[in-house]
């Protein structure tokens, strides 16, 4: 095959380039532009360099939101990953019940996220919600997610577990199904206990899917916005204001475009860093497995 | 212990089998003697792995019994039987070292650490694994991994039989003969019963004292490789064993000759009489002769049957000649150095090697 001497083929990329430019690059550059200006009114902005970045990074409310976000993400992981593995272990491996279980489990994943929030708003209401009334009347535990910070945290956590554990279950189930039967047969002949089978066969072989599950859940929970916003709107006071909502409040609520733009870039870089780690781990994992 | 008896065994994977076709194993009755090396040979889908899994306890048969010595072990789980199984691809515990892999079955049975260590060392020496004992099991080559799988079976002192399910499938060809030799050494040293499932007849013939040929869920013949070659009990055995397989020609018997088309093949009188009796009882007759014994001579000699040579394939140490005798095709194996007639030839059927099958079964 001949090598083309001229680069006319690049013109074929032009339409895609234009689309990406208008939908992604130009808006991103606009944000960068805002982040280095102090905007008094539309059209009036003074260049301030990195002042917004320094101010945002030193903002104590940002630190609080960041801490809340970290606690939230790690708690979510600590609950969802073991729960997902445990449920995946109990699922059947063949027959019609497999499809039935998988479909039922996947239903929470299919619900639009603001609808998830709304479902839990009604479900947890102390006056008319099924859970709210049960806890308050039947179990006599005072529960009000709009008034009490602890209650609102718990409700947001339970909602996330309900919504996203099925993803972990499905991933772990796929990982488990990939283990050939011969491993279980050999373990039987070796006299291995159920725990030994889990520890030495199932868990090591699920390493790949678990890594995907952990990183996906961490990234998604780090960026979470819709469900807590619909459920608590940030919580009583600031108690369930996570990072993304903090940013939105700043940008849209207070219309402080400068610091909001700066913070959104920082947020973007954090997510980019996590995605890069994700990508590197997954591709190196593939190499390790191939060896 | 390890005299394994299969009593009226049959197995169907369907919960409610209706006909013979629903059964993966039909009517197995055999005895596997203690200390023997058996090969279970047959084409894919004939039920070899099913039979192996029933013997090892990974599968409970829908009918019949499995006896170890005098004890009925049909429903006994595999870890309580004195067997070990080596699978088609290496099955290891990836997170453990080789030493821990070998020690695993003993630790699960509560053997003391001192005894475990001695036993592991003994088996590692027998299998030439001492140099890699402390390496991670997952990083080794395929043949080392299969040796570790074998080692996990040998390490238990109560194991009396080892079952192999096509274990050399993933091994490089030049390492296969090394592993086979190692298996023979193990057999002689530990005096175990070995049952080796394979669809490769060369492997079966070189490994086993007795070959069990299976076809379509039934055991067709058990015998030494020699017996299988010279006196196949069934046309399937004749066809499957040997490369190329036995020449099988549909014939009718008239007097003391077998006839196919225009060809007349002389038969020994005793065999001819039995063939006539079988034909009178309504059986279809097939004549079989191994390519090795079929003679090819020049057209001028007048002996044997007229044949026209259609193809000569040179295989290095011999040549496979395909010839047409009227409507039927036969193959002959001619050693290197012997001349082959150019086109018109005579196919000579030595009476002592000519076999007649009635309805697929050998007439004796």
Automatic annotation (TrEMBL), chain A:
Annotated localization: Membrane
Chief place where the protein resides: membrane
A GO biological-process term: transmembrane transport
Ranges for domain ABC transmembrane type-1: 66-278
Keywords in alphabetical order: Membrane, Transmembrane, Transmembrane helix
SUPFAM superfamilies named among the record's database cross-references: MetI-like
DNA-binding is among the record's keywords: no
Entry keyword annotation includes Ubl conjugation: no
TM stretches of this protein: 12-32, 70-91, 98-123, 208-226, 260-282
One Gene Ontology cellular component: membrane
Pfam families: BPD_transp_1
Membrane topology label: Multi-pass membrane protein
Protein name: Glycerol-3-phosphate abc transporter, permease protein ugpa
